[in-house]
Predict the structure.
Amino acid sequence: MEYFDFIGKVQYEGPKSKNPYAFKFYDANEVIMGKPMKDHLKFAMAWWHNLGAAGVDMFGPATMNKNFGVKPGTMEYAKAKVDAGFEFMKKLGIEYYCFHDVDLVPEQLDINETNKWLDELSDYILTKQKGTNIRCLWGTANNFGNKRYMNGAGSSNSVEVYCFAAAQIKKALDITVKLGGENYVFWGGREGYETLLNTDMGLEEENIAALMKMAVAYGRKIGLKGDFYIEPKPKEPMKHQYDFDAATSIGFLRKYGLDKDFKMNIEANHAELANHTFEHELRVSRINGMLGSIDANEGDPILGWDVDRFPANVYSATFAMYELLKSPGLTGGCNFDAKNRRASNTFEDMVKGYILGMDTFALGLRKAAKLIEDGRIEKFIEERYSSWNGELGKKIRAGKTTLEDLFNEACKMKKTDEPSSGKEEELQEILNTILFND
Ligand code: XUL
Ligand code: CO
């Protein structure tokens, strides 16, 4: 059965194309700064949004029919989702997907039964992967949806709940490795708290770290080669989440000696919820050698919650892709943790959402490369800090000065009250000309 029969393989037609089913900026094999676009970006389909989310919100039921012609809740349905997902990925030229355990099959009454379903479905996915380049980018366990996790998973007050979460993580790691995945994600989910009146924060954080350590030990044992990721998010569902942002999460990983096995999976909308920009979170990760993967989406500046829109903002994408080009490259990729608006309720909209997202990141990548090649902004930053390349600057940076040395230096100085301009407006004008000159 063909689900997306209104398209063949989506092709690159260039920015002048008016074909809604063509890429205008994403040309998979075109080389940008020494690497094909598809290797910079490594786009992935998020199983949960694309094959699962059907437009349910707090005020109304599904607006989209994602039954794929069969009864939901059955193995037949789980397999139909695989068929639809593989057709979708092939037609869009996407070579990776990401999943939570319960996106693949519904949780059964007994964990052993759920795991049998996961085995059968992952066997089926393996047969679909054969002869293609499609494989898993990262897997994860849904340790937040079931009501047992209402007080958290790794942060639960109950050791039984903690143990169940560990069992789900073990199985999700097994399935990830089986499907060729090299990475594993911990999004905090309900790892946080609502009130200190009922919370032992120290114990909760220690327990989360211990769970992560066990996951790393097991993952390495079964051959998980890549990275574990923390996906920071400041709030929602919990009021306070322990993985607030990249800086907080990196501090946590270092405290518990997890920083060699973990990197960040940065989501744009989560950055915005933390009152940061996407590029801020990427920069914090990059300068700490912790930029691993991206959850590609976009928030809404007017709304204060996670809306998971497809990325459309070229400014933001350009800044983000600048960070990517300046990093050694993602060990993960760009996973579209993005969904159609509730009123965009057709299969055509699913395809158009991905075309928009892929083209936005591709355009951002092209513009970021131009910004680097243009060189004016980077040259300005270099010059702005040039005093640090002088004798005194070098000595300080080498750790060869004391506070008394600097006191003596300062006493010899004549004028220190004429700092140089930061030239923000000039730089914005340069950026605009780079973005819009062709
Ligand atoms: C939730 C979120 C998750 C993670 C994976 O905000 O982003 O879907 O990406 O658990
Ligand atoms: Co995400």
Observations:
- Residues 100, 140, 185, 187, 231, 233, 267, 295, 306, 337 surround D-xylulose (ligand 1) (CB under 6 Å).
- The mean pLDDT is 98.
- Residues 347-374 form the longest helix (28 residues).
